[in-house]
Amino acid sequence: MLAPDKFFDLNDYTHGALFTGLPHVWLALPRLTSYLSAVLASHSGPKSAGTVSPDAIIVNPETVILGEGTVVEGGAYIAGPTILGRNCEVRHGAYIRGGVIAGDGCVIGHASELKNAVLLNGAHAPHFAYVGDSILGNRVNLGAGTRLSNLPLLSEKDRATGNRPTLKLVIEGTEYDTGLSKLGAILGDDAQTGCNVVTNPGCLIGRRTLVYSQVSLRKGFYPHHRIVKLRQELEVVERR
What we know:
Layout: H1 4-7, H2 28-42, E1 51-52, E2 57-59, E3 64-66, E4 71-72, E5 77-79, E6 82-84, E7 89-90, E8 95-96, E9 100-102, E10 107-110, E11 113-119, E12 124-127, E13 130-136, E14 141-142, E15 147-148, E16 168-171, E17 174-177, E18 185-187, E19 192-193, E20 198-199, E21 203-205, E22 210-211, E23 216-217, E24 220-222, E25 227-228
Parallel strand pairs: 1-4, 2-5, 3-6, 4-7, 5-8, 6-9, 7-10, 8-11, 9-11, 10-12, 11-13, 13-15, 13-18, 14-19, 15-20, 18-21, 19-22, 20-23, 21-24, 22-25
Antiparallel strand pairs: 16-17
């Protein structure tokens, strides 16, 4: 139920090896740093086959790979290590802080911030999104203002060790210790969020599941092929 292949079709994803053999989908995130290092070390040829505006900022360009047809607009900021696939768009004001892999046809839009994140093919974070310690499946779309929060509010560092507590999830009566102090959201293929959705740390959203606008989603597992609806009542009165 929680393995990567339950959330994603990895057959056409260049970086499917990131998920190989994992019993739980979130375990791809602690693999990300070593995986990026291995790919960058084995990469031959030019680092950039895309088009980068002279007004874009690329930090540590030797650790940034841009696929053919990818466009980085002026005002975008990319720090390595980062790998973007073919025909991606990194729009003005995008902020990629490093530790990011995106597949083909992805969109990272204005004022969207990514760090320690994985995007599968066709995933879009086009407007004012925060994607930290998160995974977006194939063709996922985040509505404007979506925030995938990744650090629990009560997660102070231990004074002796300097470590934060790890995030625990209870799914169908079983507790799972993720082993991670930071975990945003994992969205399965074709999942979508409406505008201004906030996912609390540790949300697992199934394939094709929709989350309505303005929802603050509690941590846990939301099954595939569902709609998460927000019910609210409005009262309209005469203005005097």
